[in-house]
Amino acid sequence: MDKLSDFFKEIKDRASNPLIASFLISWMVVNWEIPIALLFYNFDELKADGYISYIKLIQQKVTTVSGVYLPLFMALFYTFGFTYIRIYISAYITYIRTLSTTKNLGISGTGRIATEKFIKLQAQTKELNDRYSDLINSESEIFTLNQQLQSQVTTLTHNDTLNKTQIESLKQSNIEETAKHSLSILEGYWNYKIYFQEISNEIRIYIKDDAIFQVSNDGSKKRIFTITNYFYNPVRKEITFMRFVGDESNFDIHWLKAEDFTEGYLSGLQNNQNRIEYRRTDIFPST
After folding, report:
1. Of 59, 177, 186, 281, which is most buried by a Cβ count within 10 Å?
2. Do 74 and 80 meet the contact criterion of CB atoms below 8 Å apart?
3. What predicted TM-score, i.e. pTM, was given to this entire model?
4. Beta-carbon neighbour count of residue 266 at 10 Å?
5. Model pLDDT for residues 31-52, shown as the tens digit of each residue
6. Separation CA 33–CA 67 (nearest Å)
7. What 3 state SS string does 217-254 have?
8. Beta bridge pairs of residue 207
9. Torsion of CA 157, 161, 163, 166, to 10 degrees
10. Mean pLDDT score across all residues of the chain
11. Per-residue pLDDT reduced to its tens digit, 176-232
12. Burial 180-192, CB ≥16 within 10 A → b, else e
């Protein structure tokens, strides 16, 4: 019983082979009269067509060409050749769709930006506008905070009983907070890491003025981004800027928490989606 089961299992495994299955189908297509007679004809109908038995029908209809060569050629063509034909057909359809989309966008005056990218840029622009509206609304808080710091420094300076170290610490704190309003505070070497779900990618970068360079192992630098719209919010301890690649239609937005900035560490989000980290690898710049 086990041997019989193994026998049928072996037949099933072989029949599931694409080449064998293609050969069987090709054979039935070429010799279509035989399966029709076996499935639907009785002996009377078979004799009416001039055949005394099913065996005679097979012997007269099946030849070396129709029984072996032609089905084998069709099976080989379908299994191996048609795969490449299907790839080229799919590529051609994709090309036609892309060409059609480009033509439609050109006629409508929207250029060659894909619809998906346009919608994404539109959403990012709206999000950026909302973000900067919030920052503008908090300008009064920022001004008040700076005034308070200046007032505290003035009070401590005129109070001889206070410790001089406390005065210098407060001055340094005010200087550092003021420096963070300038993009130059980011200048230097950093290890930049971005997380895509559970996968992270880390590169070494160098920031100078409004340019971000990627640093290779041999120390050479290649410019990869341009920084614009830099803003520091001392109330939220948050740094915000945009990075452009090429033209201004290709950009992303970085929101970074700056509580640990003096330790050379920034963390936050890119486009409110992917977690990012900046870790300084050189000496913190003097102010």
Report:
1. 186
2. no
3. 0.40
4. 22
5. 888 888 888 888 888 788 788 8
6. 13
7. CCCCEEEEEEEEEEEEECCCCEEEEEEECCCCCCEEEE
8. 188, 212
9. -40
10. 79
11. 555 556 777 888 999 999 998 778 899 999 999 889 999 999 989 999 999 988 888
12. bbebebbebebeb
Which pair of structure tokens corresponds to residue 175? 């200087």
| CA distances to 10, 40, 67, 202, 264 from 213, in Å | 62, 77, 68, 14, 18
Residue type, 267: S
Rounded distance, CA 59 to CA 45, Å?
18
Q: For residue range 40-87, list pLDDT tens digits in order.
A: 888 888 788 788 888 888 888 888 888 888 989 988 888 888 788 888
Q: Rounded to whole angstroms, how far apart are CA atoms 119 and 106?
A: 17
Cα gap 156→172, rounded to integer Å: 13
Structure tokens at 188: 């230097």
Which position has the token pair 């346009």?
A: 118
Is residue 64 within 8 A of residue 58, CB to CB? The reply is no
280: which 2 tokens?
């300084």
> How many residues are recorded in the chain?
287
Phi, psi for residue 258 in degrees, rounded to 5: -115, 25
Segment (H or E) for 178: helix 164-179
Q: Looking at this protein, which amino acid is placed at residue 163?
A: N
Indicate the burial class of 171 (C-beta count within 10 angstroms; 0-12, 13-18, 19 or more). middle
Q: Which pLDDT score is estimated for 173?
A: 62
Report the percent of the chain where pLDDT is more than 70: 78
Half-sphere exposure of 66 (CA within 13 A, CB side): 13
